[in-house]
Write a structure and sequence with these properties.
It holds the Pfam family Phosphodiest. This is Sulfatase N-terminal domain-containing protein. InterPro entries: Alkaline_phosphatase_core_sf, Phosphodiest/P_Trfase. GO terms for molecular function: hydrolase activity. This protein is an alpha/beta fold. The protein folds into two domains: 216 residues, no CATH class; 376 residues, Alkaline Phosphatase, subunit A (3-Layer(aba) Sandwich), CATH 3.40.720.10. Helix content is 49%, strand content 9%. The strands form three sheets. Strands 1, 2, 6, 7, 8, 9, 10, 11, 12 and 13 form a ten-stranded mixed beta sheet that branches. α1 runs parallel beside α5, α3 packs across α6 and α19 packs parallel to α22. The longest helix is centred in the N-terminal third of the chain and has 33 residues. It is globular, with a radius of gyration of 29 Å. The C terminus is likely disordered.
Length: 679
């Protein structure tokens, strides 16, 4: 039976209750998904407060949609009486027109959700249906939520594909969306009687009570459960260092992959890597799952798992109402509403060493008066004060900032480099996108005329869905490697630290963007022929360039230097719908070590990213900590030198978990999206 009074206030009340119920349910479901896909939330101590902060964001959405829909519903459905009935085709037509108008006016992704809300309401109204309001709004929200997430999934898999040379992709998107919406409405009409016979009030009550009980029980466990144990620390670290006269240069090449290296070695195009392999030990370097660079490179320089060192994500979320902060950045791909939450509700910034719960190797060594230096390493900002120097990834060239703002040099802060006076020496090596020459472009790309050169120089933004900017990744990534490679060579030559590390990320960026052309025979039907010809040799050419960089560092290093070349992962041999290649299956990276005391032309087995720090410490005569997750790769050494141990290198430094924001944060997040890490 219809409500005796179809009042305006009842419309709003019923719609608000339906909106809150569905937003509570959807928020709870995606909260569980967020906990599952973000390493930083895998302990109850972080998952529970995250839940309490995350679900209210969906409740806000439910209130907004519920209020708006209740007002509009009160206008469209004025009474409980049936004035007229239109035919089914007319009902579909009016509903589709409503959807299209809202979709075009508001735009995606909010437009499709709002359009489906109103289209369903109009569909019910023109049908002459007047069910009790609780059931009416339950049906509207159920249909709209089902459509929204199913449409997002379909769009991700069938519409959003920048590789296809389609000039009408937007039209295709709109037509397919309308078709999908009508399909949902048709299914709704078939099961309409079942919708309006549901015991909605009972369903509301059970759902709300279940979530309240779950929250209360979780809270009780959160308060009563024992606190997680802190890492063992020492107040007075006493170390006896074994005498040694060797130095170590650690070169981190993001994404370097044996599958690309091996054919180039056969062609004699990588002479410096060939020299290191033949004069040293090499093999696969097992990595972490998932393959998040911030976590892996930090594990390399701490010898510990992400659970121990605390760097589990690229980004940190800070909720406005509680100040709760947690490393978190992966969101389900079908949740377009989270883009609004992340831009307007959550404060989001790149993770820094303020979240680092373990001591990096440059501090372990510096604390024992070993001269150290590191350039562009992950999670090195703000720079530590060390016996030597730290050039962070905020200094000289920050692609996250420059990708969209390269005409304006980023302001340097005191935390970007230590000692700050070193900046005056290094600024000469800053090589920006505007400095890339025609000869540099031609060494990587197959370009016959000068028209493309002019187009390349004119690029001033980055959008990975725009074919016109396919060259952007090269334009913004290559100068970063040039900058830090030049600075690294200068610092090795002039400072000669006992431990030196440099990180270069261009290889990874190139492979994400351009492996589709390297493997073009696998999907030639999806690639534009002109682009295939232009980019097919870029990956090989970039590896040749990186080989030259390695050679330039070897030229200026002390003869008694052990060189280690490592990568964090390889790549999966499959292209994603966006046209990117990725490394979601955790393919192994590269390990190469050569120099005094290293076995020549041998292979290493079972090497892991955790083993890099223990092995370097052993080389430099330092003991290995018992709380490391890695081991010394003793099999690579010609001498059998016993490994000495200490309980820990932790001296009480604890992560402040203080969120530090800067003017590069928005562009950093845009780069993660462009590489396919976020959506």
């Amino acid at each position: 039976m219809a409500d005796s009074q179809y009042t305006f206030s009842k419309h709003i009340g019923a719609s608000l209750i339906a909106g809150l119920l569905f937003s509570l349910a959807v928020g709870f479901i995606f909260n569980l998904k967020m906990i599952g896909i973000n390493e930083g939330l895998h302990t109850f101590r972080y998952a529970y407060p995250f839940t309490l902060n995350f679900i209210p964001m969906y409740l806000i959405l439910g209130l907004i949609f519920g209020l708006v829909l209740g007002v509009i519903g009160g206008i469209i459905i004025r009474s409980g009486s049936v004035n007229r009935k239109l035919g089914i085709m007319a009902s579909y037509g009016i509903s589709a027109l409503t959807f299209l108008l809202v979709y075009l006016i508001i735009g995606e992704p909010v437009g499709v959700a709002a359009g489906m809300f109103l289209a369903t309401l109009v569909f019910i109204a023109v049908h002459g249906l007047r069910p009790p309001l609780a059931r009416l709004y339950f049906a509207v929200f159920f249909t709209s939520v089902l459509f929204n997430y199913s449409w997002q999934w379909v769009r991700q898999h069938f519409i959003v594909n920048p590789l296809l040379p389609l000039s009408n992709s937007n039209t295709m998107d709109i037509v397919f969306t309308i078709f999908w919406g009508l399909l949902i409405l048709a299914a709704f009409r078939i099961f309409m009687k079942a919708f309006f016979k549901l015991p909605v009030k009972v369903f509301y009550s059970i759902g709300v009570v279940f979530l309240i009980v779950l929250t209360v029980v979780g809270g009780a466990y959160y308060l009563l459960a024992p606190q997680p144990g802190q890492a063992e620390t020492v107040t007075d670290l006493q170390i006896e260092r074994r005498s040694t006269d060797v130095k170590v240069v650690l070169i981190g090449i993001d994404g370097m992959w044996w599958k690309i290296i091996d054919p180039l070695l056969e062609q004699d195009r990588l002479p410096n890597l060939q020299n290191l392999i033949e004069s040293g030990t090499s093999g696969f370097l097992e990595t972490l799952f998932p393959t998040f660079s911030a976590a892996i490179w930090t594990s390399m320089t701490t010898g510990k798992s992400p659970e121990k060192h605390g760097v589990t994500a690229f980004l940190v979320w800070k909720f406005p109402w509680s100040g709760f902060t947690v490393p978190c950045f992966v969101t389900p791909k079908i949740t377009a509403e989270m883009n609004w939450m992340r831009s307007d509700l959550v404060i989001e910034a790149p993770i820094t060493n303020q979240f680092l719960d373990a001591t990096p190797i440059w501090l372990m060594l510096s604390d024992q008066n070993v001269k150290v230096g590191t350039v562009n390493w992950w999670v090195s900002w703000p720079a530590h004060e060390v016996n030597g120097f730290v050039v962070t990834d905020h200094c000289l060239y920050n692609k996250s900032y420059i990708m969209q703002n390269y005409r304006d040099r980023e302001g340097i802060t005191a935390g970007d480099i230590y000692p700050f006076e070193l900046l005056e020496e290094l600024i000469q090596f800053a090589h920006g996108p505007e400095d890339v020459t025609e000869s540099e472009i031609r060494r990587f790309l197959n370009v016959e005329d000068s028209t493309f050169i002019d187009e390349f120089k004119a690029i001033d933004t980055y959008d990975y869905l725009d074919i016109a900017y396919e060259a952007s990744m090269l334009k913004y990534s290559y100068p970063e490697d040039v900058t830090f490679a030049s600075a690294a060579r200068y610092l090795i030559q002039t400072r000669q630290p006992e431990y030196f590390s440099v990180y270069l990320k261009g290889t990874d960026s190139m492979e994400h963007q351009y492996l589709k052309y390297y493997f073009e025979e696998l999907h030639s039907d999806k690639l534009i022929p002109e682009n295939v010809e232009r980019y097919r040799d870029l990956i090989d050419n970039y590896y040749v360039y990186i080989d030259e960089v390695i050679g330039s560092l070897m030229e200026v290093a002390d003869p008694n230097t052990i060189f280690m070349v490592v990568s964090d992962h390889g790549f999966d041999e499959i292209m994603l719908p966006t046209g990117h290649y990725n490394h979601m299956a955790s393919p192994a990276g590269v390990f190469i070590a050569a120099g005094p005391g290293i076995h020549q032309n041998t292979k290493v087995n079972d090497a892991h990213v955790y083993d890099i720090t223990p092995t370097i410490l052993h080389v430099l005569g330092m003991p290995v900590a018992d709380d490391f997750d890695g081991r010394v790769l003793e099999e690579i050494f010609t001498e059998d030198i016993p490994v000495s141990n200490i309980p820990t290198y932790e001296t009480g430094r604890r992560a402040s978990r203080r969120l530090i924001e800067s003017d590069i944060d928005d562009n950093y997040k845009e780069r993660l999206r462009a590489l396919g890490y976020t959506n």
